[in-house]
UniProtKB/TrEMBL annotation:
PANTHER family: FLAVIN MONOAMINE OXIDASE, SPERMINE OXIDASE
Stretches assigned to the Amine oxidase domain: 2-102
Pfam families the UniProt entry points to: Amino_oxidase
Any one GO molecular-function label of the UniProt entry: polyamine oxidase activity
Name of the protein this chain belongs to: Amine oxidase domain-containing protein
Superkingdom classification of source: Eukaryota
C-alpha cells in the first residue's frame, strides 16, 4: 500500500467509505498515511519478545517511574502487555491497566 500512488489510495479509500456508508460522499481533499513499513528504523512494526527475553522484561517496561508507590510517569502500549504484546487488544488493555493504577492512587488518598 505504501508503494502505491497517493491518488490511487485516496480513490480506493473513497470507494470503501461510500461502500460502507451506502451513499455517495464528497471525495476527500487529502490523505495522510504513514510509511512505517518503509521506515528503515521501524520496518513495520510492533514489539516482540526475544527468545532470550523473559516475561519479567515486560514488567520492567511497564513499570511506572519513579516507582509504583509514587507513579509520575506511566507506560502503556502493546509492548508493555505481558500476554498480548503485538496486538491492539494488548495496547488497549495496557491503557486500562494504567487507568486503574491512577484510579487506585486517587481512591487510596481519599
Ligand atoms: C501491519 C500491521 C498489522 C497489524 N495487524 C494487527 C491485527 O490484525 N490485530 C492486532 O490486534 N494487532 C495488529 N497489529 C498491531 C497493532 O497495530 C499494534 O499492536 C497496536 O497498534 C499498538 O498500539 P500502541 O498504542 O501500543 O502503539 P501505536 O499504535 O504504535 O501508537 C504509538 C504512537 O506513538 C507515536 N509516537 C512514537 N514516538 C513518538 C514520539 N517520540 N513522540 C510522540 N509520539 C510518538 C506514534 O506515532 C504512534 O501514533 C498490526 C500492526 C501492524 C504494523
Amino acid at each position: 500500500m505504501e508503494k502505491e500512488p497517493h491518488d490511487l489510495v485516496l480513490n480506493v479509500c473513497h470507494e470503501l467509505m461510500e461502500k460502507f456508508l451506502k451513499r455517495s460522499i464528497q471525495r476527500p481533499i487529502n490523505l495522510i498515511r504513514t510509511n512505517w513499513a518503509s521506515e528503515p528504523y521501524v520496518y513495520g512494526s510492533y514489539s516482540y519478545q526475544s527468545t532470550h527475553g523473559k516475561h519479567s522484561d515486560v514488567d520492567i517496561l511497564a513499570a511506572p517511574l519513579p516507582n509504583e508507590k509514587v507513579p509520575r510517569l506511566m507506560f502503556a502500549g502493546e509492548a508493555t502487555s505481558k500476554h498480548y504484546f503485538s496486538t491492539v487488544h494488548g495496547a488497549m488493555m495496557s491503557g486500562w491497566r494504567e487507568a486503574d493504577r491512577l484510579a487506585q492512587l486517587y481512591t487510596s488518598h481519599d
